[in-house]
Amino acid sequence: MEGFKYKDYDGLGLADLVKKKEVQPLELVEEAIRLTDSLNPKMNAVINKMYEQARNSAGQKLTGAFAGVPMFLKDISQEIAGEPITAGSGAFLKYRAKEDSEYARRLRQAGVVFLGQTNVPEFALVAVTEPAHYGPTRNPWNLDHTPGGSSGGSAAAVASGLVPIAGANDGGGSIRIPAAYCGLFGLKPTRGRTPVGPNYGRAWQGASVEHVLTRSVRDSAAMLDALHGHEKAGAFSAPPFEGSYLSAAGTPLGKKRRVAFSVKSPIGTEVDADCREAVLKTVLLLESMGHQIEEVESPVDGHKIATSYLTMYFGETAALLKSLGEVLERKATAADVEPTTWLLGLLGKATSAEEFVLSLREWDRAALSMETFHETYDFYITPTTAHPPAKIGELEPSSSEKFLISTVGKLGLGGVLKKAGIVDQIVQKNLARTPFTQLANLTGQPAMSLPLHLTKDCLPVGVQVMAARGREDLLFQLAGELEQSEMWQDVRKNALWDC
Description:
Pfam families: Amidase (PF01425). Keywords: Hydrolase. It is an enzyme of class 3 (hydrolase). The chain folds into two domains: 6-252 and 479-493, Alpha-Beta Complex (Amidase signature (AS) enzymes); 302-376 and 396-431, no CATH class. 41% of the residues lie in helices and 12% in strands. It has 18 helices and eleven strands. It has helices spanning 11-19, 25-43, 51-58, 102-109, 152-159, 176-182, 217-227, 245-249, 273-288, 302-328, 339-349, 353-373, 399-411, 414-419, 422-431, 438-443, 472-482, 486-493; strands at residues 46-49, 70-74, 113-118, 165-170, 185-188, 209-214, 258-261, 292-295, 379-383, 447-454, 460-466. The strands form two sheets. An eight-stranded mixed beta sheet has the order 4-6-5-10-11-9-7-8, sandwiched between helices. A hairpin with a 5-residue loop joins strand 10 (447-454) and strand 11 (460-466). Helix 2 packs antiparallel against helix 3 (51-58), helix 10 (302-328) packs across helix 11 (339-349) and helix 10 (302-328) packs across helix 12 (353-373).
């Protein structure tokens, strides 16, 4: 490995070296282990190490597009038989996965070597990764700041160069938000494109999908080639795609496209100047490439989307706490989970089946509106987030809020809080920093975050691009072109703590 610089290669680049016998899979694994042991204590990105399993896997015959490439899985839903999967919660510490997830099975077929699991907020419920049990994950660009969530551990692992690829999933922005905060590429696929089973046919009613976080566009595209396809228990099917996403990532768009953009928050909250600037610079670049640009907001009511998203969020948390009893072998109590999780569950219990069904109908109306919108516009561009990364602990509940949460939890007053308008307050507080990403989850569209801007403090912010359902190929084409731009390269050359 003389002269070999592991961090200089993306996943496909490392796999090519393995294929040419210029490096052995075990050498890649040992380098990833060395970096993890050196850097992870600063970041707390990795919470479960599978080093011996990785060494054993590296010694086996590996085939596939990513043969021999080390990667981490996310500590929720991406199960490995016999390994813990805690979802960031102390309640699951004794739990062991009974079988591989379909996601992990397909990645094994692609040849990757699993090194361990990355940190997540409890049950992946928030957009920062600061679980009480494991502690916060820190952003490698600035350790005082969050890498986002819920795939924050994976984002920090990739951004710091521990691995070129890490597992992620996205139910309200959990791929795109960490990608934006860590200067990475992150694509949320179309609903039904990637597997969520075998234990479930849907995740968060179809809002959540599985994929990866990467440094390069082509790694994400090749991973989608490996992951997509029919799933026996899958509740949803994406529009068919017979081509190669990797090929799309290397193919220019060719004809000029119609591009809509907006820098206004869909819920009327503030958008930071850097997040607006990132979008405005991007659309100017696209205009210089000959694309037709128009400033126009989406046809969907942002407040209705936010409320319907939270209705699902509350209901899913309540159901999760109910099913937690199967793991604990007793009824779950407030002491088993973080206070905010318990509060969300109470709000879910106070949500009627009628409200839940009506919220899902709102998703369908939004999906129809956006499909019609994309008959005119090929792409819809917004900031990925409304603000740069928050500082660690900045979004922690205040003392008075903690007291309220504790009191409500003890007295079971979820219904009272709903009637008092607490849901509207939660919309404003929890989605004010990240109001742009939920739309694509509820409509089922593909959306990506592009690393195209740095703040004056050298923190990344992302640009989100959405396309019609089933058109990941268009997103990869656009991303492949923009990856060569000076804007993208400026972010890349300043990466890995070089600012």
